[in-house]
Design a protein that fits this description.
Layout: E1 48-51, E2 95-102, E3 131-138, E4 152-159, H1 185-194, E5 196-205, E6 208-212, E7 219-221, E8 226-230, E9 249-251, E10 256-261, E11 267-271, H2 284-287, H3 292-299, H4 319-322, E12 349-352, E13 362-364, E14 372-377, E15 385-392, E16 395-397, E17 399-407, H5 418-426, E18 429-436, E19 441-446, H6 452-455, H7 465-470, H8 472-479, E20 484-485, E21 487-492, E22 499-503, E23 529-533, E24 536-541, E25 546-552, E26 561-569, E27 593-598, E28 605-609, E29 621-625, E30 634-640, E31 648-654, E32 663-668, E33 674-680, E34 686-692, E35 731-737
The structure holds MU-OXO-diiron and calcium ion (2 copies).
Length: 745
């Protein structure tokens, strides 16, 4: 659907609160470029791209690179899937895609099958909604953790959000639910429970995969689950609440988006658009005496007067509802009698041992607090620190790296206690934010209380390192990190250790910016154009997004310098060359890259989209790629004309253009869905993919008329109740090759 982030029509929750004055190029004119090769008149002129020839220096594959994954068959041998507007999952000939785990499916013995008519309850024991990132954890026949199992395992699945319009998660309620306040507790209780994470066992019998609905491993984390605060902010004054007066715990995880798997075999999940679930009343700034917490709350999207996405705070006087009002209402000086600090308990990477339900999840505060997507672990090297790469998905936000104090011990790959191993590697280390330079180099700037620009920052006075971690966006502002085009997932190429980041789109880029939130193009975010969708010209900035990659310097995980280029620019294949900079063909073109996962079995880079710009032509999709390396393409100078100040030249570095054998569309999803999350069996013969929010563009007012639902997937495939008129459900699919081969061959 036509929206910038995982939110329903009319709901704008993606942060837009970075008004810091970090350097970016002076700007200028607006290229007005249209879809399908048409150049339309009007304001501005077509951009022209002036080709440069200098190859980015020093970026070739080094001799010390890890050996590439060696495929045993021809990869990308399948026939590309065409663009599709069908209400189904389309995969290449010779492949089969089957739904196995959908919203509401039971996760415990005795829980009734999902009726999918709005009358279901007990969501604490059912699959949550909006399946997102996902990781595989193998199980041996005896039920022990196994790195080699290929027919039995656990899927740890994020449940990011819910399909809603005007507050109500309408497919969960028989009549669509209430849009006015106060909202009934019976509705809110369901919505509180369908967010979070699930762990579900899956098994293969013959060639068929299925979820094991009564497995003892099955588990849910919801918005109410007890979770420990770990790392530098544990016990800090910023985490003190009525619920945890010691500042050591909070309840729940929220808006779980991307995922990761640690080198020691645990699961990590990123909390993304959590800010919008809180309300903050007018008058709260004064109640706080305009102290520095107001600066923090504004920087994280909650100026006073902000209203919440669902109105959960209105459902009653109970503590589980009151906590969603982020306000100073008590008389204490430390916040131990209210929820003025409650938002400081969200926005982290959360670690979970999927094999052990007895162990509480932990929020790893050392990795920073922002709109987290995935957490990608650098390839571990014995005796070297562990690096974790991360993005903050909001317009104009930053890319981060965490580097552990502890050095990697290979014996920790299979530890007796995974959460204790997480304590070792994730609770002490350095946090950095990235600066991208116009010459193709970049720097990791440490976010430390002793970093001079942070210690002396005029915009916010940091008390200690915990404050730096909790307010990492403000620390990024202080050191002048580069504002990016919405960093979504990141992933590490197992062939050479390079790190890929999807930058999904940014409607705030302008050649001649106005206001504090618009930015001129820069080298790492170099495109500004207008994409025409139908007759609409409202898609401006960088509507199609790009995929950037970096190569660490000689110090590897601990490097403070890197080189970078743009692997691919999203674009329509018919767009002018100044937009379609990667020369994508109709078998390759895509918009708004989001999910990004490298297969460890085949080395294929899977690219998934969550798009609103190209959805008049195709539903969201997944592509298979075999990328090269940083520096395999060339420098290019993009030239923009301006109404004042002459031309603007922006140097960028573009990876070698893909060929028909290195980039190919593999899957297109049902109507209204995004494709997100991917994990695989270790042999690469089964991949699991999530179809999030099919039918999201259904109007709540049409809840009584199934013929007006925009999607009926997966009910229309025979999965679950409802058949051809079913309410749509987010779901996990498994993809197998009919000849038993590896996926992507
Ligand atoms: Fe949850 Fe930024 O996608
Ligand atoms: Ca998304
Ligand atoms: Ca995402």
């Amino acid at each position: 659907m036509n929206k910038p982030v995982d939110l329903p029509i009319g709901f704008s929750e993606e942060e837009d609160s970075n008004t810091s004055a970090n350097p970016s190029f002076d700007s200028i004119l607006s290229a007005r470029l249209s879809r399908r090769g048409l150049l339309r008149g009007g304001v501005g002129t077509a951009a022209t791209a002036l080709f440069g020839s200098a190859v980015l220096a020093g970026c070739g594959g080094g001799d010390d690179d890890p050996a590439p994954v060696a495929p045993t068959e021809t990869l990308l041998g399948f026939s590309a899937v065409g663009k599709s507007l069908l209400d189904s999952v389309v995969v290449p000939a010779g492949y089969t895609a089957t739904a196995i785990y959908a919203l509401g499916d039971p996760l415990a013995a005795g829980v009734a099958d999902y009726l999918n008519d709005g009358t279901d309850t007990n969501f604490e024991n059912r699959a949550g909604d909006h399946h997102d990132g996902m990781e595989w954890f193998g199980l041996s026949a005896a039920g022990a953790a196994s790195a080699t199992a290929v027919d039995r395992g656990l899927l740890a699945v994020n449940h990011e959000a819910t399909t809603d319009e005007n507050r109500s998660s309408f497919f969960l309620h028989a009549d669509g639910g209430t849009s006015t306040l106060p909202r009934p507790a019976l509705e809110v209780d369901k919505e509180l429970a369908i967010h979070g994470v699930s762990v579900v066992e899956v098994r293969k019998t013959g060639t068929a995969w299925a979820a094991v609905k009564d497995s003892s491993f099955n588990r849910r984390l919801t918005t109410l689950t007890d979770i420990e605060i770990a790392g530098p902010a544990r016990g800090n004054a910023l985490l003190v609440t009525k619920h945890s007066t010691a500042g050591t715990a909070t309840r729940g995880t929220l808006n779980n988006c991307g995922t990761g798997k640690t080198p020691w075999g645990s699961f990590v999940t990123g909390e993304e658009n959590w800010s919008g679930y809180f309300t903050r009343p007018v008058g709260d700034d004064a109640a706080r005496a305009n102290d520095k917490s107001v600066t923090s709350l504004r920087r994280y999207g909650r100026a006073e007067g902000a209203t919440s996405r669902h109105g959960w705070e209105s459902a009653g006087a109970g503590d589980i509802y009151a906590r969603w009002t982020n306000a100073k209402t008590g008389v204490s000086t430390d916040g131990s009698d209210d929820y003025r600090n409650e938002m400081n308990g969200m926005g982290y990477i959360v670690e979970l041992d999927p094999y052990d339900k007895s162990k509480a999840a932990k929020k790893r505060t050392g990795l920073g607090r922002f709109a987290h997507e995935s957490a990608a672990f650098g390839t571990p090297v014995a005796g070297q620190p562990i690096a974790v790469y991360q993005g903050d998905d909001s317009r104009n936000e930053y890319i981060y790296k965490f580097v552990s104090t502890a050095l990697w011990d290979a014996a920790d790959a299979n530890p007796a206690d995974r959460m204790a191993t997480g304590d070792k590697y994730l609770d002490s280390g350095k946090l950095y934010a990235a600066k991208f330079n116009a010459d193709g180099s970049g720097e990791w700037i440490e976010l430390s209380i002793t970093t001079p620009a942070i210690a002396a920052y005029a915009g916010y006075t940091f008390a200690d390192q915990a404050d730096v971690c909790v307010n990492s966006r403000l620390a990024g502002d202080a050191i002048g990190a580069t504002k990016m085009d919405r960093p979504e997932w990141c992933a590490v190429n197992p062939a050479n250790g390079e790190i890929y980041f999807t930058l999904t789109n940014n409607s705030n880029r302008r050649v001649e910016p106005t206001g504090s939130s618009q930015l001129a193009p820069d080298s790492a975010n170099p495109r500004v154009y207008t994409d025409i969708k139908g007759t609409s010209t409202s898609q401006q900035g960088n509507p199609n997004g790009h995929i950037l990659r970096i190569k660490e310097g000689a110090a590897g995980s601990a490097a403070t310098g890197f080189t970078w280029d743009v692997y691919l620019f999203g674009a329509e294949s018919g767009a002018p060359g100044a937009i379609n900079l990667s020369s994508l063909t109709s078998d390759q073109d895509f918009s708004s890259p989001d999910g990004l996962v490298f297969s460890r079995a085949t080395g294929i880079c899977w690219i998934q989209t969550d798009d609103g710009a190209y959805t008049d032509v195709t539903n969201c999709m997944m592509l298979a790629a075999l990328p090269g390396q940083v520096g395999d393409g060339a420098k290019k100078t993009l030239s923009y004309s301006r109404t004042a100040g002459g031309a603007l030249a922006v140097d960028t570095y573009i990876g070698k253009a893909p060929t028909a054998s290195t980039l190919k569309r593999f899957l297109v999803g049902p109507i209204g869905s995004e494709i997100t999350g991917l994990t695989e069996t270790p042999d690469g013969k089964a991949i699991f993919v999530n179809i999030q929010h099919p039918g999201e563009n259904t109007a709540q007012a049409n809840i009584a008329d199934p013929t007006k639902f925009t999607s009926h997937w997966p009910g229309n495939t025979g999965y679950g109740a409802g058949g051809a008129t079913a309410r749509p459900r987010s779901a996990t699919i498994v993809i197998t090759k009919n000849d038993g081969g590896r996926i992507g061959s």
